[in-house]
Design a protein that fits this description.
Elements lengths: L2 E9 L2 E3 L5 E3 L3 H12 L2 E6 L10 E3 L2 E5 L4 H20 L10 H21 E10 L6 H8 L4 E5 L7 H4 L5 H9 L3 E4 L2 H15 L7 E4 L2 E7 L6 H7 L3 H14 L4 E8 L6 H14 L7 E8 L6 H21 L7 E4 L5 H10 L2 E4 L8 H9 L6 E5 L4 H4 L4 E3 L4 H13 L2 H17 L2 H12 L11
Parallel strand pairs: 1-4, 1-7, 4-6, 7-8, 8-9, 9-11, 12-13, 12-15, 13-14, 15-16, 16-17
Antiparallel strand pairs: 2-3, 5-6, 10-11
The structure holds GDP-alpha-D-glucose (GDG).
Length: about 475
């Protein structure tokens, strides 16, 4: 098997359909990379998402998919353990205590080896390989050892922590050397690239020169490539009849003309959901907001529910929602509509179109696509975005109402300012944010990374 372009990610770009077949997974990453993979003789290496699934490799939409099976132990140790209970919290400022276990690390190492072996098998001589995210940080070096002919890129979707925090990691040297196996290491923000280069200097005694560092006879480049969304796709969806029907239904069900605050997140402790609800509760308690004038819809998509910290977060959030609804609600009228569910893309779009204020308040977030999706959805130039300054998106969207999510008073100030802003101020802000996004969509992100990496030749972008 000889593929000239190989994407390597924890998950394959498909989900099992009800009829047992496969459908393309939603999301900008897949919609950006799949066409590139299809047009350049591409393959994708990743897990199907089903524990113990031994599906053989198959073609889907012109891309060769090479599953890497994960056993129940792999899912416990590599995925929920090392990836999501050690690396994830540590790379997000340790907002939850990272847990360190030796058998998790061993499993992380073993699964990364399997990903590297599978990739080495499918990549053609001199192929370009693009590896994604924190679950696979050892793969670049493992792959280079097996296949020095390859051009290897790595992109980290989450923040890269400051040196002092990274130094706490058992196996820190292996992880760093793992990444240094790539020719190009991409991050969401320049600060993350700087952290990485400083770490390389500290741990290995290398001497970075600008954004590059010489390592084992090669040059490794570290640079920011802020990810984005499929802006044209999002704009097309706003006129989809199913979306418009859903928006009407929402308005009817909510009744009256209450203004809508909206939160959309995976239920994750990095997303600042508790702080957002606390701020909203205080605004109600102080009478700054009245439950018959505003409503908060919080869509909290179930995520990593076997990890203890996520179960505890769910309990805390649900207790607080119950308290606020108990204290400030009435029969037939609750101040918080809390949905612990996953909704269809059409329903999500209808929520974006209905929200007067989108409240995105992570304590730390590599980028945050929800903020960008909201802006892309608002072709009407309506609505306001309250955005945590600790998201990657904040650097690109200074016209949002920026807040410090650790400061409840600042959260309250941001929400109130967004609710009180004049329509013309909001329109100006939204227009500027939309202009930025249209020029920086996910296709441009993928192309700029692959251009910097060199290797595959890309078709020119399709006119929109
Ligand atoms: C990681 C980084 C970085 C959520 N609920 C539903 C649903 N979603 C979709 C959103 C959005 C995506 O999930 C979440 O993306 P985020 O960027 O907000 O956050 P993470 O999942 O933490 O993503 C992050 C990203 O990678 C990309 O590099 O931005 O910083 O942490 O697209 O729309 N979609 C549907 N139903 C839901 O209920 N259909």
């Amino acid at each position: 098997m000889e593929y000239r372009f190989v994407v390597v990610a924890n998950r394959l770009p498909v989900d099992r359909a009800d009829d047992g077949g496969w459908t393309r997974s939603p999301g900008g990453l897949v919609s950006a990379l799949e066409p590139i993979a299809r047009n350049s003789g591409g393959a994708w290496v990743g897990w199907t998402g089903a524990v113990g699934d031994e599906t053989a490799p198959f073609d889907h939409d012109g891309v060769y998919l090479r599953p890497v099976p994960l056993s129940p132990e792999d899912v416990d140790r590599y995925y929920e353990g090392a990836s999501n209970s050690t690396i994830w919290p540590l790379f997000h400022d340790a907002v939850e205590q990272p847990v360190h276990k030796r058998d998790w690390r061993r499993s992380y190492d073993a699964v990364n080896r399997r990903f590297a072996e599978a990739t080495a098998e499918v990549a053609a001589e001199g192929a370009t390989v693009w590896i994604h995210d924190y679950q696979l940080m050892l793969v670049p070096a493992l792959l280079r050892a097996a296949r020095p002919d390859l051009r290897i890129g790595f992109f980290l979707h989450i923040p890269f922590p400051p040196v002092e925090l990274f130094m706490q990691l058992p196996g820190r040297g292996d992880l760093l050397r793992g990444l240094l196996g790539a020719d190009l290491v991409g991050f969401q923000r320049p600060l993350a690239a700087e952290n990485f280069l400083q770490l390389a200097a500290r741990l290995t005694g290398l001497h970075p020169d600008g954004e590059t560092v010489a390592y084992e006879g090669r040059t490794v480049t570290a640079r920011a490539f802020p990810i984005s969304i499929d802006v044209a796709g999002s704009e097309r969806m706003t006129s989809d009849p199913a979306v418009l029907r859903e928006r009407e239904r929402l308005q009817e069900d909510l009744g009256g003309d209450r203004r809508i605050l909206l939160g959309v997140d995976r239920l994750d402790y990095t997303k600042g959901i508790e702080q957002r609800i606390e701020a909203y509760g205080e605004l109600l308690a102080e009478g700054a907001l009245a439950a018959d004038e505003v409503v908060l819809i919080q869509l909290a998509t179930p995520s990593r529910m076997r990890v203890a910290q996520y179960q505890q977060l769910r309990e805390r959030v649900e207790r607080e929602v119950g308290r606020i609804n108990g204290e400030f609600g009435d029969v037939g009228r609750v101040p918080v509509h809390y949905l612990f569910q996953s909704r269809s893309p059409e329903e999500l779009q209808a929520l974006y179109l209905s929200a007067d204020v989108m409240v995105v308040t992570p304590l730390r977030d590599g980028m945050n696509l929800v903020a960008k999706e909201y802006v892309a959805a608002r072709q009407d130039e309506g609505g306001a975005l309250v955005l945590s300054e600790f998201t990657g998106a904040a650097a690109e969207l200074p016209d949002a109402f920026l807040v410090n999510p650790y400061d409840v008073d600042d959260l309250k100030r941001g929400i109130t300012a967004a609710l009180r802003a004049t329509p013309s101020d909001l329109r100006d802000r939204m227009r500027r944010m939309r202009t930025h996004l249209r020029e920086h969509d996910v296709d441009r992100w993928a192309r700029s990374f692959l251009d910097a990496l060199g290797g595959i030749k890309l078709d020119p972008p399709c006119p929109q």
